[in-house]
Amino acid sequence: MNIDPDITILMIEDDEVDVMAFRRAISKAKLPNQVHYAANGLEGLEYLRGEGGKPKIKQPCVVLLDLNMPRMNGFEFLEVLRADKELRDAAVFVLTTSNLDKDKVRAEELSVAGYLVKSELGETFLPVIEKLSAYWMSMSFAKCGSYDWE
Fold first, then answer.
1. Which of 18, 60, 120, 125 is the most exposed place for a label (fewest CB within 10 A)?
2. What is the CATH number of domain 8-144?
3. Residue-range domain boundaries for the chain
4. Residue pair 14/39 in contact by the 8 Å Cβ criterion
5. DSSP state string for 88-147
6. Digit-coded pLDDT (tens) for 24-81
7. Orientation of helix 126-144 relative to helix 16-29, angle to 10°
8. C-alpha to C-alpha distances, 85 to 7, 80, 82, nearest whole angstrom
């Protein structure tokens, strides 16, 4: 598995068990990426903006976002993120327990890069790492393949 080491990962998740599982997956995959953890959407925005005493996360960044959290849930976070001209282009992958079509549609309307249901991941978060790796490889390929033919 290979994610560009210059990519920073921000996991916004209130479930400590899921955070620990993701940490194990990062360690097992031996990823060199810097990873930050926030317990809710407000804290996630503080990291992205460098506010509230949080260090500003180095860009480029990918966000792993839970939907059901206290203070500011995932959809509220996405609405604020997409309205912010400096942050709106962030790649966001939703990691949630919700398999509801209405949640998938709403997430798609808010331009998420992927929607992953936790119960479908199995006991580890290694499938998340694999999807992130595939996403960044495809993004790198797209950048390499863009030519000015004029």
1. 120
2. 3.40.50.2300
3. 8-144
4. yes
5. TT-EEEEEES---HHHHHHHHHTT-SEEEEGGGSTTSSHHHHHHHHHHHHHHHHHHHT--
6. 888 888 888 889 999 999 999 999 999 999 999 988 789 999 999 999 999 999 999 9
7. 60
8. 20, 10, 7
